[in-house]
Amino acid sequence: MKKIVVVGLGLIGGSIAKALKRNTSHVIYGIDIQEEVMLDAVSFGVIDGKADFQHIQEADIIYLCTYPAEAIHFIDTYKNDFKLGCIITDTCGIKSHICEQVRQIKGDFIFVGAHPMAGKETSGFSASDSSIFIGASYIITPGEASREAIEEVSNLALSMGFGKIVITTPENHDRMIAFTSQVPHVIACSYVMSPACDAHKGFSAGSYRDVSRVADINAELWTHLFLENQKELVSELDILIEHLQKIRNRIELGEENQLHTLLETAAMIKRRDKI
């Protein structure tokens, strides 16, 4: 039985606490800046209690479910207080920055970078739900972590319901996340800023919902994520803009055959993706 501390009981942290409490016998303590969240987490049995300094000192595993800067600050603040071999893992959506920053902090802890590929449009503890992890991917960027620490984090992820563990480098993670996660959020935000959005009701169905779904965005969080992955995201946006321009020009010039070829190429790529 492990002593686990979850720092930040928002959507992801709250869901992790709920999943661990439901599916394991570990003792779970929590930390959150909102006292109301702490009271709810304890009263609903999501955690066994509020973590104090002693809990941090005794923790076997600490989940940092905060913004990257806050996660780095937490590690730097308590770097001399963690017990020998304490595993610290995070849930940040960008890995290169935080992994490099943590690497420079010396201590007896073991850092295992991670990113649970799950979420909702809504945020906060009230939106947390352990079921969002069922079948999802759990990405680990282990860096210099030991095989035992990586296995510990992987096994905990599987116990939470994740269906696949992906081991990769921070750099490859950030390249792929720019494409699979960040660009769709940019598209959704750009899409709903059209003047036509105010009058879409009665004219919209599945396509509108699919494209606009993630536009209900946590602006503070995603601002940080976009800027911390600036190089990779801008590169992917340049590719997107190039393809949008090609389709736009074919439409404007009435070039039916060329437009058909572009659309058929996209359809073939998507069909191949389903195989």
What topology, given as strand order, has the largest sheet?
3-2-1-4-5-6-7-8
User: Structural class of the secondary structure composition?
Assistant: alpha/beta
Q: What is the chains' assembly state?
A: single chain
Largest sheet, strands/sense/barrel: 8 strands, mixed
By DSSP, the count of extended strands is: 8
Supply the number of helical segments. 11
Rg is 21 Å
Order of helices and strands: EHEHEHEHEHEEHEHHHHH
Describe the structure.
Helices cover 52% and strands 13% of the residues. It is of the alpha/beta class. The radius of gyration is 21 Å and the shape is elongated. The two termini are 41 Å apart. It has helices spanning 11-23, 35-43, 53-58, 68-78, 96-103, 147-160, 170-192, 206-212, 219-228, 230-252, 256-274, and strands at residues 3-7, 27-31, 49-50, 61-64, 87-90, 110-116, 137-141, 164-167. Helix 4 (68-78) packs parallel to helix 5 (96-103) and helix 7 crosses helix 10 (230-252). It has an 8-stranded mixed β-sheet with strand order 3-2-1-4-5-6-7-8, with helices on both faces.
Summed up:
This protein is α/β, with parallel strands linked by helices and 275 residues long. Helices cover 52% and strands 13% of the residues.
